[in-house]
Amino acid sequence: MSKIALITGATSGIGEACAHTFAQQGYNLVLLARRAEKLAQVAHHLEDKYAITIKQLIGDVRDRKQITETLESLPEEWKKIEVLVNNAGLSQGLEPIDKGNVDDWDNMIDTNVKGLLYVTKVVSNWMILNQSGHIVNIGSIAGKEVYPNGNVYCASKHAVDALNQAMRIDLLPHGIKVTAINPGMVETEFSLVRFKGDEERAKKVYEGVEPLIADDIADAIWYVVSRPKHVNINDMLIMPTAQASATQVVRKG
Ligand code: NDP
Ligand code: 8X3
């Protein structure tokens, strides 16, 4: 069987773009997300276009029991995962710490930190059996800097930054590569989710700026994954040209 990549959060944005890139490169795919219909659309489109096979896993990374059982339900030959892209994640709200919604905080921590850990726990053990593999963690500029009202989202991505470094140390004896890809502003469903469906507010985030697109990040992920066996890219920070830091953005007009 061809190499297998497992991508979490494959129904939109960066995860969906990654699924396209890996399919194009001939990888069989395990795609995971909550929206079953959207996941089926992505999978069928790719299977029609490329000579690959896809396993669709419907699951919520926040639910430890469900996500562990869902992953473990894969047939044995599908557990030989070469690449794991820990991409599922979200932001909810943009409020000062005293006004933040505690349910939003739980959601971000449960998804971005605990969800990433639950998936990694299962898949890293499979990689250890193979003494091979590459884990790509999607962090953020928010994992390198903190910006006003970004508090808990930034904290969750700082945790991803720490876990990325820790995983690399722990998995070193097993020949498993670990890389963080840290994007700045990428136009996806991210802001729509952050602002809970408020399209006006989400659109404003990208007004007058040329943000990154999901394919830019998929391209970077493919670059790190396609390096020779003896080369690992530890950490990559990728910004739109119009963005210098988390808060410094040049807008036209
Ligand atoms: P999108 O909202 O477009 O995609 C997020 C994906 O994550 C969706 O496929 C969604 O699928 C999935 N997801 C969310 N929650 C869960 C969950 N509980 N269980 C399983 N899947 C889940 O956003 P992006 O593509 O932009 O985000 C991808 C990653 O990139 C995130 O980790 C984000 O923090 C990070 N990032 C984004 C940046 C940006 O500016 N867009 C910049 C820096 C980092 P579904 O709803 O079907 O479950
Ligand atoms: C997403 C980008 O700038 O909202 O991680 O933190 S930002």
UniProtKB/TrEMBL annotation:
It comes from Pedobacter rhizosphaerae. Gene3D superfamilies: NAD(P)-binding Rossmann-like Domain. The keyword Plastid does not apply. This is NADP-dependent 3-hydroxy acid dehydrogenase YdfG. The keyword Nucleus does not apply. Pfam families: adh_short. Keywords: Oxidoreductase. Transmembrane segments: none annotated. Belongs to the short-chain dehydrogenases/reductases (SDR) family. It comes from the Bacteria. GO terms for molecular function: oxidoreductase activity, acting on the CH-OH group of donors, NAD or NADP as acceptor.
